[in-house]
Fold this sequence. Notes:
Blueprint: E1 2-3, H1 11-23, E2 27-32, H2 35-47, E3 50-57, E4 60-67
Parallel strand pairs: 1-2
Antiparallel strand pairs: 2-4, 3-4
Helix pairs in contact: 1-2
Amino acid sequence: MVDARGYSCPIPVVMTQKALNQTKPDSLEVLVDAQTAVQNITRFATAQGYGVTVTEQGQDYLLTLRKN
């Protein structure tokens, strides 16, 4: 799980990219607190071949990335 709450873009995308590059997971969960981060991570993950599911958790967003 990548907890990117409290960071402004592009840091959440960089944190997500680092996690994907280190372990090459089939799925990854990313927790963010800004709609902009949701949009940017979704765009990045899609370009990397991942499908993205977004779940709102109060004021936070849980993104679940799954390899297509």
